[in-house]
Amino acid sequence: MESTSEINTSEPIPIKGAYEIYDGKREELITLTRAGRLLQEGELLPPIPGISPEGVFIIHTVNAFGTPTCDECTSELETFHQQHPGVPVYSLTKQTPEQIQEENAKHPGQEVTHNQLSIDDGTAIDLGVALRPGEGADEEFWPTALRRMVAVVKDGQVVHIQEHDDQEEKPDFMKVFETVESLSN
């Protein structure tokens, strides 16, 4: 399969709904872009270190553990994983393993049992979730962030995928969980 990291990287795709907080006020960013091509249903998942393509599993991208929307999404996936321990769940981030561990340590008693994996920029581009800051965007934060995406994969093939225009918008997890349950029967 051709790597999607070679597709559309010279012409980033504009992202809507991205913002930064300045002096306590939300300011929309009009120059944030995504690099790579978002996966489509029916396509093969590109190789991701730490993930075996066999069986049914969920992948989910996380801007930063320790932020409200990302933590809410991770919590919903964690609840599902605890109820369905045979279904692997992978939360992907560009945070380092040390940063992930630090964030988890801030929440004693809220053990995370699903996989939290750090991915590099090439993998993020392959998944179509790498973000690039434009004029006026935080040059340090946005290259370490990921576009919000959740996908259900069966035997390496994407069977359900969601991407959101607003970084604060949560995926429709009911559709995700229904898809997993229909594939597991």
Please explain how this structure is put together.
The protein has 185 residues and is an alpha+beta fold. It has one domain (4-184): Glutaredoxin (3-Layer(aba) Sandwich), CATH 3.40.30. It is built from four helices and ten strands. It has helices at residues 68-83, 97-105, 121-127, 173-184; strands at 13-14, 19-22, 25-28, 33-35, 56-61, 89-93, 115-118, 130-132, 149-154, 157-163. Strands 7-6-5-9-10 form a five-stranded mixed β-sheet, with helices on one face. A hairpin with a 2-residue loop joins strand 2 and strand 3. The longest helix has 16 residues, at 68-83. It is globular. The model is unreliable at 1-10 (pLDDT under 50).
Task: List the topology elements.
Layout: E1 13-14, E2 19-22, E3 25-28, E4 33-35, E5 56-61, H1 68-83, E6 89-93, H2 97-105, E7 115-118, H3 121-127, E8 130-132, E9 149-154, E10 157-163, H4 173-184
Parallel strand pairs: 5-6, 6-7
Antiparallel strand pairs: 1-4, 2-3, 4-8, 5-9, 9-10
CATH topology: Glutaredoxin
How far do the termini sit from each other?
Answer: 29 Å
Characterize the largest beta sheet: strand count, sense, and whether it forms a barrel. 5 strands, mixed
Share in helix? 10-25%
Helix-strand makeup class: alpha+beta
Q: What CATH architecture would you give?
A: 3-Layer(aba) Sandwich
Q: What is the mean predicted local confidence, pLDDT? A: 79
